Amino acid sequence: MKKKVLTILLAISMVASMTACGTKEDGQGTQEESQNAGDTEDTTEDLTDVSTVSTKDINAEDFVTIGDYSSLEVPVDVYNFSDEDVTTQMQTEFESYVEYMDAYEYAATEKTTVESGDIVNLNYCGKKDGEAFDGGTAEGAHLEIGSGAFIPGFEDGLIGHAVGEEFDLPLTFPEGYQNEELAGKDVIFEIKLNSIDEKSMPEMTDEMIAGMGMEFQTVDAYKEGMKEYLQTTCDEQNKSNRESTVWETVYALCEVKDAPSELVEDAKTRIKANTEKYAEYYQMELEEFIQQSMGVTMEEYETQVEEASQASAKEKLAVAAIAKQAGITLTDEDVSTYAQEEYESFGYDSVEAMYADVGSGPYYDYVLAEKVNEYLAGIVKVTENEPVSVLELING
To answer: For the chain, N or C: smaller number of CB within 10 Å?
Structure first.
């Protein structure tokens, strides 16, 4: 995930608002982190058009008039959490796991006739041409009538039948069913209704936690892990809030002329290359991806790419101008040191692989921005707004 984040930061930092419709920040909780731990595929890792374009050889002060930020006082949003928040998030993730794994506790009711909304316990065996087909047989399965979990006609076909009843249910699979051997085929399900049940959330026990696929084996360990996760989320988000709020305020004081075409065109090229890679990843044609995933027409996309590229180039110039004014220097050796220290944490096998993905030029501007952020943190006074629960960030 870090690799993807770095690529976006360097190549399309100003297009975030344009592509946000298909993005969700990772780190939504310890359960989700565990479930997605193996999902490291990067939609941009094949981007090998190495870019050396940066502000390094541009006199940024020719394009930027810097405002006075020496006495700025900036309010920032901050997140924290309480013991109650820890318990709440633990329960939220636990309930998600129970729902996903259908790990509810079920108990039979005295109800005898199936109605819509009932949860039935049943045995079934699906047969085509008299032979049971793969995936069509289960015993003691639970099904909520009206959930749409089974093919059309299955759930409706149970309504009105009685507990203990055994019957055949003839159905036809949809033409577009994913299993081509069953698509459009006539089948018969042999049904036995065992009971009409009600479900309840099980107790959070060590055994249940151990079965959730995380590194935690006990409830206490899960609690400590949740505290660590919430604290890390707060620290990272609060740091990000401070940096972004300070920068946005300082940048608003700057007047920036139209950026040199090489900066704009480089940003434009990389935005489009990333868009193409995302479309390829989702196995969609470029125009289809732009229209469906981004919610814009090709013409609107081109306009937004142009605007985003201009904005990105202007911000890079402002960073470079402030660096020059503050006496911040960045040598090739400095950049190399940063790259050697960071490439592994960003998910790359080597510095060369990182440069091949994001470009040495954009990486230079990224490192320069990091140094400028550090500088501004010591200049601009920050006041914290009333803290809010980090669960608002995590759970939306």
So the answer is: C
Q: How far is the C-alpha of 175 from the C-alpha of 184, rounded, in Å?
A: 4
Domain-embedded: residue 94: no
Same domain? For 196 and 219 the reply is no
- Please count the structural domains in the chain: 2
Which residues lie below 8 Å from residue 348, measured CB to CB, with a gap of 6+? 3, 354, 357
What pTM was computed for the model? Answer: 0.73
For the stretch 200-253, pLDDT in tens is 999 999 999 999 988 999 999 999 999 999 999 999 999 999 999 999 999 999
pLDDT digits (tens, 9 = 90+) for 13-60: 433 333 333 333 333 344 444 333 334 344 333 334 468 899 999 999
Quick check: 189 and 199 in contact, CB under 8 A? no
Q: Write out the residue range of the structural domain in which residue 177 sits.
A: 105-200
Report DSSP state, residue 306: H
Residues in the chain: 396
